[in-house]
Automatic annotation (TrEMBL):
A Pfam family hit: OrsD
This protein's name: Uncharacterized protein
Stretch list, region Disordered: 1-29
């Protein structure tokens, strides 16, 4: 489900930030019974306080409100901090997340951003990434699969979430299931390469890529031919 966003920029907190339309947080705050209700979600299972505006868990609520929600006045910030004081915010244990790979996704955690990504299917490998480029590097460095070999069935499309988007050591992706009737606007596309799987998780086949290359070559040829004809006409007019 698409979410409204505050006017402040979330900044470079992760390798892959979504391009989303942001709304003023003050409008949403006015609709809520109390400041913070509806977009600050506490998850007891994972001991995390999630900001649904930004799609990740909050480590320091005071710092997050100050830096990411500057449109909230001091009195409202103090009230939010007071009402959430005493919550267990240790974050999820590593074993809670690593068990959810491509073959065992869990239900999506409310409030966290969902990313389209890739899972390495090499036996015993648990590598997950939202980046096609990072997947290629992983296949090359860890499994010595280079070039065309890396196009083989060594990966699968997945939906990913992470509680934290930085620093890098805190990022831990896990696989989630997304209902077929869900709103695709809430899912960010995997970043990367023209060879990345396209559309709704379908793989770009060799035939698709050859067709695309052929169309591009034809377009270039048409442009070149048109330019040549224009040059010839200009030369004739100058004579």
């Amino acid at each position: 489900m698409a979410r409204g966003r505050p006017t402040d920029s979330p900044g470079g907190n992760g390798p892959e930030r979504q391009e989303e339309t942001r709304e003023s947080a003050s409008c949403v705050h006015a609709e809520a019974t109390k400041p913070g209700e509806g977009w600050l979600i506490y998850n007891g299972e994972y001991r995390s306080l999630i900001c649904a505006f930004h799609g990740y868990a909050v480590r320091s609520l005071e710092g997050h409100l100050r830096d990411r929600h500057p449109d909230i006045d001091h009195r409202a910030r103090s009230d939010i901090i007071h009402r959430h004081k005493g919550l267990q915010l240790q974050g999820p244990a590593l074993e809670q997340l690593v068990q959810h790979g491509a073959s065992n996704p869990t239900r999506a955690v409310k409030g966290l951003a969902v990313h389209r990504g890739f899972a390495c299917t090499w036996p015993g490998c648990r590598h997950l990434t939202p980046s096609w480029k990072c997947l290629r590097v992983h296949l090359n460095d860890e499994h010595n699969m280079k070039g065309a070999k890396a196009q083989a069935d060594l990966w699968t499309n997945v939906h990913l979430q992470t509680f934290f988007t930085g620093p890098k050591r805190a990022i831990c992706y896990f696989c989630v299931s997304v209902s077929a009737g869900g709103n695709d606007d809430a899912v960010s596309a995997a970043g990367g390469d023209p060879l990345t799987p396209v559309g709704r998780g379908g793989r770009a086949t060799m035939a698709d890529r050859q067709q695309t290359d052929s169309e591009a070559q034809m377009m270039i040829a048409d442009i070149t031919q048109g330019w040549s004809l224009q040059q010839e006409e200009q030369e004739k007019m100058q004579k």
